[in-house]
Specification:
Helix content is 41%, strand content 23%. It is α+β, with helices and mostly antiparallel strands. It folds into two domains: 118 residues, Phosphorylase Kinase, domain 1 (2-Layer Sandwich), CATH 3.30.200.20; 129 residues, Orthogonal Bundle (Transferase(Phosphotransferase), domain 1). The strands form three sheets. A seven-stranded antiparallel β-sheet has the order 1-2-6-7-5-4-3. α5 packs across α7 and α7 packs across α8. It is globular and about 55 Å long.
Length: 259
């Protein structure tokens, strides 16, 4: 389980002794046969589901991951850590690096003799707003906020963190005076790399946004802050984004054939 001490209790992996005691004090927290604990409120339903619940006056959020296919069930049970555990473990690593993400509390893994079934990641609730509406859905995006975002992306990469799904819905923000604080979420597919290369960093930016003017602006500021060639970096990222969008279009056409 890495360099962190985890407490195992009724399928839960709890990050420290204080949280373990808290979990034991909660009635109905065992998840069995898909029955959710009492008092959980659905916040979002999609491929994954998000719930909220209150413990000792603190509101927590639980993300329930989609039930994996047979091969994933076996792999996550015997050969590789699952999404819930990675989300919790990676959040602890991020916070040690000084990169904000909601405080991780625990992970739950429902196991069968063959593999895993359901899994949850539990963290403290964060009410910061996502960047997508303010940067993408406005005609003239906030350049000051885009500048701050580029600086944050530089900081993440210099600390060796490559977000596995880097887009503007997975980066939250709030203003504190004249400064902007960013928080990342949905980090279970991320990578930690010692001194990522220029190619790795630029590739990581590709899914940031499909809005062309915003994408090019952030990449230019990012490259400038890194001391890299702006034109070359922008052209490279634009080419990778175009290729990524073509792949998405092909997938959508294939899906339509089977509907």
């Amino acid at each position: 389980m890495g360099n962190f001490h985890w407490y195992r209790w009724k399928g839960w992996f709890v990050k420290d002794e204080a949280h373990a005691l808290r979990m034991r004090s909660m009635e109905g927290m065992t998840v069995s046969d898909g029955h959710l604990p009492a008092g959980w409120t659905l916040l979002y339903a999609g491929r994954n589901q998000v719930y909220s619940f209150v413990v000792d006056g603190c509101e927590w959020v639980a993300k329930m991951y989609k039930i994996p296919n047979f091969f994933q069930k076996v792999a996550y049970r015997w050969f590789a850590p699952g999404k819930a555990w990675k989300a919790c473990h990676y959040a602890l690593r991020l916070r040690k690096l000084g990169i904000q993400t909601p405080e991780p509390v625990c992970a739950y893994v429902e196991e069968s003799p063959v593999g895993i079934r359901r899994s949850f990641f539990v963290c403290a609730r964060c009410d910061d707003a996502p960047l997508y509406p303010v940067l993408v859905e406005t005609e003239a995006f906030d350049r000051g906020l885009a500048d701050a975002l580029a600086g944050f992306l530089v900081e993440m990469h210099q600390k060796g963190f490559l977000h596995g799904d880097l887009n503007l819905t997975n980066i939250l923000y709030h203003r504190s005076g004249e400064s902007v604080q960013f928080t990342v979420i949905d980090i279970n597919r991320s990578k930690f790399v010692d001194r990522p290369t220029e190619a790795q960093c630029l590739k990581n930016l590709v899914r940031l946004t499909h809005r062309p003017d915003l994408f090019e602006y952030v990449v230019r500021v990012y490259a400038r802050l890194r001391g890299w060639k702006e034109e070359a970096c922008t052209a490279r990222c634009r080419s990778m984004l175009n290729a990524y969008e073509r792949r998405l279009e092909r997938k959508q056409r294939i899906k339509k054939l089977f509907k």
